[in-house]
Each structure stands twice: as C-alpha cells, then as structure tokens.
Design brief:
Rhopdopsin 7-helix transmembrane proteins, 761 residues, 12-stranded mixed beta sheet, 21 helices, disordered N terminus, 3 domains, disordered C terminus, two-stranded antiparallel sheet
C-alpha cells in the first residue's frame, strides 16, 4: 500500500486528536470488527491516504459534537474520507449525521468508548458505507439504519453492510424498521435488551444475527424474526430466553444458544428446514433433535405425511415422463424449421407440466407457510427458488431423518434414556421404595408412640429410621417421575432437573445418606462401649450426650446436602439428581468428602463389630459344655456378620466406582451407575429397620404393647403372651415359670444380652 504525504494540517492538540508512533498499523481486534486503522507521528494529524482515500482516527478526543465543520477545520477533505474512527471520546454527546452526506466515499464509521453518546439520529443515504460500529458506549436504542442505501447512486441489488456492531452499549429497545437493512452480520451483544418485538427485522436481509450476552433478554415475540428472509446464523447465547420462535428461521443453518439454562423448550427439528449445526445448553435438547418422533409425535406424523405426498408426486412425475419418452418416435432428421420448433415446444410443455405439479406442493411441504405480502418487501425475489429446490429433491430424495450436528450431545452423565433406564430396575426400585417407606414408618410409629422411658438406643433408632425414610422418599420421587415420563423423559427433563422437585430429591438423598452413616456409626460405638465395658454401669453414653452428638450429625448432614444448592456441584447435572458432575476443584473436594465420610464410617463399624464379636468369646467356645450359651453367641455373631455384609454390599461398590471416577478413570457410566446409586446403595434404607428394630424382641414387645393400648386385635396380644410364656415341666409348678440358669460363667451373659437386645436380640 503506497503512502502519500497529506497536506499540512493543524496540530493534533488543536483538532482534539491524539497521536501514536509513526507508520504503525494496528488491527482493531474486536469480535466483529475488521478495520485497519493508521497512526502517525505525534506532530502530525492522525490520518493517512489509503488507495486515494483517507482513514481518520480520533483517539482520546475531547470533542462533544462530531460535525463536518470540525473535521474540515482540522484540515481533512471530507470527500476523500473513507474510514472515520473515534476511539475514546468521554465528552462526545452528539453526532450530526446530516454531515455524513458530505463524505460520499465513507465506507466505515466507528465509535468506541463514548459513554455520553445516548442516541444517534437516523442515518441518511450513504451508498458506500460497509461497516457501522458503535461499541462500549452509552447508546440506549438501536440507530435507524434503514435508509443507508436508499440512494439512486447505490445499486440496491448489490449494496449491503458487511458489519453492524453495537456491542457493549446500554441498548434496551429495538425500534421498528431500525434494522431493515442488507447486512452480512449484525451484533447486538452485551446490551440490556429485554425483548425482541414483533417484526423487529421486517423486510431485512441479515445473514448473521447475534444477541449474545444480553442477560436480561427474556422474551422473543413469536414473529420477532419474521420477514428476515436470509437469516443463516443466530446467536442467543448467555441470555434468559425461555422459548425460541420459528417464524423467519426456516433457512437457519447454525444456531447458538449456549450458557442459557433458562431455555425450557426447543422446537422440533422439522421447523428448521436447513439447520446443520446447533450449539445448545442442555443435553436433552440434542436428544430431542436426535429422536424427533418422540420429541413431537404430532409434528413427526405431519412430516411423514408430507414425505408420503412428495414420494407420491415424484412417482407420478416419473411415470408421466416415462410414458412421454416411450411415446416419442426414434430420432429422425429434421428438415423443416417448423417441425423443430414444434418438437422444442413439446419438450418445453413436458417440463412445464412437471414444474406446475411441483409449484403448488410448497404449501404442503413447508411447515412455516409463506409470509404476508407486506412482509416480503423488495427483497423477496432473491429467495424465490421453490420450483428449483423441489425439483432437486425429487432427484435426490431421502426419507431418512436429517442429521444435525448438535452439542452438548448425550454423554455418560446425561444419556437419552429414561430415569431408570431398564425395565427390571424400574420394577425393582418400587420394591425397595415399599420396603424402605413401610419399614421405617413402622419403626417410627412404634418407637414414638410408646410411653416408656426414652433410652439412648430408642433415640438413635428414631434418627436412623428417619434418615432411611428420607432415602425411601427420594427413591419414591424418582420412581414417580420415571413412571410419568416413561419413553420420553427428555420432554420432561427441564421441568424435573431444573425444578424444585429435583433439588428436594437431591437434598433428601445426600442428607439421608450422611445422617444414616453418622447414626449407624454412633449406634455401633454405643453398643461396642456398652458391651466391652459391661461391668462399668456408670460408663454409659447419656441421652443428653447422644442428643448433642446427633445434633452435630444433623448439622453436618444438612451442610453437605445444602452445598449443591449454593453452587458447589449441582443436583441438576443428571436425571437422578445426585451431585456427580465435577466442573472444578471445589466439586472434586466436595464429592471426595462424601466418599471419605462413608469410608471412615464403614471402617469404624467393621472394627467395632469385630471387637464386639471377640468380647463375646468368638462364638466358638461351648463354655464347658454349655452349648446353649455358645449357640446364643453364634446367633449374635451371625447377626453382626449380616449387618457388616449389608453395609459392605451397599457402600463398597459405590465408593469404589466413585473413587475411580474422581481419579479420572470412570469405569461405569450413569446408565450402569444407576444400578449402584438407585438399587444397591439404598438397600440399607430398607434393611436397617428390619435388622436393627423390627426383627428384635424389644420391638415386638413395644408393638404388642401399642396394639393392646388400642384395644384392637386382642387375639394377636393373647398369641404373643402364649408364645413368650415358658411351658411347664415336671420339675416345676405348672403355674410357675421355670427358673432360668446362668448362661455364662466368666461374664454375666444376661447383662450383655440385655444391653444388646434393643438392636440385635
């Protein structure tokens, strides 16, 4: 590029221009700005001649009004200015747009960092203008650019704007017809737009349109994009929209709606006739594109009807053409010009017949219909290619569903499947739910309504039953959602995963899991201490101490369950509402803490039960021939083994696969992990009430006492009394119960059994 010395001009200080090092070309690298600006020596005005045109840059200027007089007074010839840029104008309040007419060669107009520039009057006709940008300024509304190319000098069929960039302003409204322009790209990013009104782009021809970063944008009118006949790319990322209209998006090829969790529903893929790529926020929206027949059965049926009609019409045309070819005579020399004309006319007639048959089919094949005549504007003629496209479809007819490249695609955490995934798991979870809910409700009902003195074991049993009941309620919520959304979960996924229900379910799951682990640990420690130090009656955990310990357990469990509600991990990452997704180090630490708590609790329980088993004599001695005592010990040992085995079966697989996932080597995906998280892990919730309460003698006594208090089922009370009364023998008075012999010599076994009876008798 050849540079020529410009005429002497006033100093930069006089013209309000700042300067930069000589002969330095800098590229203004904004998202949608492709302008090359020029800086010159500190003692020269900021301009230079580019291909017989002038590029002017006003850097850090103090001007308040941008006028032709100011530029002319600074020594610029307005008729040769091609690029006008203002970079940093803290006092600029007004742009005299009428003076821009005096710059007939103006190709680019750029203003940035002008916070006091709130409005720009409608621009006049500027036939050469290609770029219009006002960024990081104080604009409150979109300037009217609809008349930029309304000029006799402008070729209306070719004139267009390469870029309109209004990024980073304070724009709240889009006036009607303000953007009725021909433009390659229009950027309204990072503004304060709250709504895109009806026909905001009426009669416009915009190829790429972006609203990215308008966090207050919540509503798009159903006809917001109607009348824009050339829209190929649309970006609505990082907004707050809840729905997406389809009018005007029939020709859309690339759709971006990333980081927009508020988008609840995605239209059917059949509404986007030419969509090739979609960058969305939710996995289940890509599932909707992948399975359109499930996403919108009515729309899919209409599509199949349209396909059948098109196949029928294509077959009819092919048969008609085949009959036409068979009816033609062999090629013969043409000697008469009239015959030549007749043959050509016959061939044209055949072509027109086929075209006429297709011409009326567009109204059936197109799901959007046609725009009203007043919406077509002067640009409608360039997209009127119906006959050509339909004729091409017959030659390349394909009945398979269109494949759209969609992200985020379904993955291990969010597969395109139902909540339960497998039929056997769907049936099994109801069995677990019934056992967990009924069993724990029964335990709470008996323990809380019994009027005997509240003991430490009873208190701990109430806490354990409540925590396991929460697990049952969590599974019940999952089972109900799975039953309701069977076969089409991704249509319900938004309401479930981002609704209150999933947050409640996730909170119940984590809270119950942690509280159950803590309660079981305290129960085991209390039993170990009571049995190991049985002769020290004064060394017992008091009820007040147990209450303080459990209060700490409740607080810890509530904290761990509440952290995902505060942004540490997330319950909405999967359909089973568990915080399994790790996005940052905080999520990893949180999940690691959950697994570590369970691991420590399980090790503690195993060690304590081994010590209890050893303190009872190992279950193998017969105590000098007293086999009854040995049998009682073995029964207790077997029950402890059952408890440990249940804990191991429930916690060990989840802990193992959880640790491998945190280590970056996941061995199972969520589809198979549901078997662990929904089936194995909650087994404790339905096993604990039976192992720790319902199957014990103490619980049966309390239950019969409760039944007797109601005055109902007297036959059950009498049956229980008979079963617990020892039978008379020949050595005793038939009316006197037999005297019980001591079972253990070295240790008072009756004392141990009494201490242990509340849990495992």
């Amino acid at each position: 590029m050849r540079r020529r010395e410009s005429n002497p001009r006033p100093s930069a200080q006089h013209s309000g221009l700042s300067t930069a090092p000589p002969s330095q070309f800098i590229e203004h690298d904004r998202r949608s700005t492709y302008q090359t600006l020029t800086r010159v020596n500190a003692n020269q005005p900021v301009c230079c001649q580019l291909s017989e045109g002038v590029s002017v840059v006003l850097h850090q200027t103090n001007i308040t009004r941008l006028t032709a007089r100011a530029l002319h007074a600074a020594g610029y010839h307005l008729h040769i200015i091609e690029h006008l840029s203002i970079m940093g104008a803290p006092k600029l309040e007004h742009v005299v747009v009428e003076d821009l007419i005096r710059m007939p060669r103006l190709k680019s107009f750029f203003i940035t960092q002008a916070p006091l520039l709130h409005r720009v009057a409608p621009l006049p006709a500027l036939p050469e203008l290609r770029t219009f940008m006002i960024t990081t300024s104080g604009l409150l509304e979109v300037p009217n650019l609809s008349h930029v190319h309304d000029s006799r000098k402008a070729n209306t069929s070719l004139s267009y704007l390469q870029a309109i960039d209004l990024e980073g302003n304070h724009i709240k409204t889009i006036p009607s017809h303000a953007l009725r322009v021909r433009a390659d790209q229009v950027s309204l990013n990072y503004n304060l737009i709250e709504e895109v009104p009806k026909h905001a782009f009426k009669n416009a021809q915009i190829s790429k349109l972006s609203f990215k970063g308008n966090t207050k944008l919540k509503r798009l009118d159903e006809h917001a994009f109607a009348g824009n006949l050339l829209l190929r790319q649309l970006d609505l990322s990082n907004t707050a929209i809840t729905s997406l209209p389809t009018k005007g998006l029939e020709k859309l090829q690339i759709l971006r709606i990333e980081r927009t969790p508020s988008l609840k529903y995605i239209p059917s893929i059949y509404e986007f006739q030419q969509l090739e790529k979609a960058y969305l926020t939710h996995h289940f929206h890509c599932c909707a594109f992948k399975f359109p027949e499930i996403h919108n059965p009515a729309r899919h049926k209409l599509y199949e009807t349209q396909m059948a009609m098109m196949m029928q019409r294509c077959a009819s045309i092919q048969k008609s053409q085949a009959r036409k070819r068979r009816s033609l005579e062999p090629i013969r020399p043409v000697t008469d010009g009239a015959q030549t004309v007749t043959a050509l006319e016959d061939d044209d007639a055949s072509t027109m017949t086929a075209s006429e048959e297709y011409e009326n089919f567009e109204e059936y094949f197109s799901d959007s219909g046609s725009f009203e005549d007043d919406d077509q504007g002067e640009f409608h003629d360039i997209v009127n290619d119906t006959v050509v496209s339909i004729s091409a479809d017959c030659g390349n007819f394909n009945t398979r569903n269109r494949n759209v490249e969609c992200t985020p695609a379904s993955d291990a955490l969010n597969p395109c499947e139902d909540v339960m995934g497998w039929s056997w798991l769907r049936a099994s979870v109801w069995v677990v739910v019934a056992a967990a809910v009924v069993g724990n409700v029964a335990v709470l009902l008996v323990l809380l309504t019994n009027h005997t003195e509240l003991t430490v074991p009873r208190f701990l049993m109430c806490n354990l039953a409540f925590s396991d009941l929460c697990t049952g309620l969590y599974l019940l919520m999952l089972a109900v959602v799975d039953l309701r959304s069977y076969g089409e979960f991704f249509n319900y996924a938004y309401n479930w995963q981002y609704g209150v229900g999933c947050k409640i379910a996730g909170f119940l799951s984590v809270f119950s899991g942690q509280l159950s682990v803590i309660t079981l640990t305290i129960v085991t420690l209390e039993r170990w201490f009571a049995i190991t130090y049985a002769i020290y009656l004064e060394r017992r955990i008091s009820l007040s101490t147990a209450a303080k310990i459990m209060l700490g357990g409740w607080l810890f469990s509530s904290l761990m369950a509440g952290l995902p509600l505060l942004g540490v991990s997330d319950y909405s990452s999967t359909s089973i509402c568990l915080p399994v997704e790790s996005k940052d180090i905080g999520d990893v630490i949180y999940q690691g803490s959950l697994f570590l708590t369970n691991a420590l609790a399980w090790v503690t329980i195993v060690v304590c039960y081994v010590q209890i088993y050893r303190s009872l004599g190992g279950g193998g001695e017969n105590y000098g021939g007293r086999r009854a005592a040995a049998a009682a010990e073995r029964r207790i040992a077997n029950k402890m083994a059952l408890l440990i085995g249940t804990d191991l079966l429930c916690w060990a697989p989840v802990a193992f696969f959880g640790v491998t996932a945190l280590a970056g080597v996941p061995l199972v995906d969520v589809s198979h992990g549901k078997v662990l998280l929904v089936f194995f892990y909650p087994l404790n919730a339905c096993a604990n009430p039976f192992l720790y309460a319902i199957l014990t003698k103490q619980y049966r006594r309390d239950f019969i006492t409760l039944v007797a208090r109601t005055g109902q089922c007297n036959w059950l009370v009498e049956k229980y009394k008979l079963s617990t009364t020892p039978p008379p023998t020949a050595h005793t008075n038939p009316s006197t119960p037999a005297q019980l012999m001591p079972l253990v010599d070295q240790k008072n076994h009756s004392q141990v059994s009494k201490e242990f009876s509340d849990f495992k008798a």
